[in-house]
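note to self: dont lose this again. the chain is below, predicted strucutre after it. 344 aa total, dont forget to put it in the shared folder this time
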Amino acid sequence: MLKIGIVGLPNVGKSTLFKALTKKQVEIANYPFATIDPNVGVVAVPDSRLQQLSAFSNSKKTIPASIEFFDIAGLVKGAHQGEGLGNQFLSNIKEVDAIVEVVRAFKDENILHVGGAIDPKDDIETVHTELVLADLKTAENALVKAEKLARSGDKNAKIYHQALKETRGLLEAGIFASHASEETLERTKSLNLLTAKTFILLLNITDDSYRLAFSPEKYNFKNVVMLNLKLEEEIQDAGDTETQSLSEINNLIKAAFDALCLITFFTTGEDETRAWTIPRGSSAPRAGRAIHSDFEEKFIRAEVIQWKTLLDAGSYARAREKGLLRTEGKTYIVQDGDVVEFKI
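---
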């Protein structure tokens, strides 16, 4: 399952976001470290195509793609040295696929700011500095072990040692590990470096004039989302369908899929209709792995049709008669919205 960590300074709206996403009741308080242990919630990825396919097949079950969100304790200066709940915070986000960084971009004298003054740019730099320093410590520890192996003459150990040196050089310069070469990123993947992950910026806003004073382009964000999290909380609390239709919270889920270069394909039948998440550019066998490893290893062919084409045809039989249902081999690149039946 796709895992996303929600991070940021204390009192910026992380738990409010988590509540709006997951519909869970969590402690939201006007003081630092209201969240100590991470709140965890699974969120269904909204997709109207899934519902239409399920109705088309009269499926007994409808299973959406899902994302696991982690609401993690607030980060403060010195977290890499254990300040606040720093060590616990950093360990909790090691395993996530992407990080949503919530930054306060609104003024409210009734809500405390851990730094004393509201400055989105400074808040981002505080978080990023702590993540860089934490990763630098990880890289340096790994280098000590790698140097010993490299001296033995092992070729792979020498290559790994060089990759670590490249990573350390970036981090010492205050640059995210994600800026390393593709080869280096692959070789250091096992370290789960925080700054090698995909970052999405969520600006928690209330009025346009204040948010427009801040420009996030220089940072390492794959996507930027602006949400009024207080309003989102009120929308969720209202409960009625009409009010909830005003929510823009799904923009964050879409941004996460875009940032991570993910797409969705479907399987459908009487038993179930299901959405599957795969990396963009996946071959048909690689897509099959999302279902089961056998679907990749024992792949023979796949029958493929776009979801709308199938619905317009009215049935699988009619789609086959019209030549709309295609047989694809191992080199086929699965497209977003494909309905796939695997043959193994």
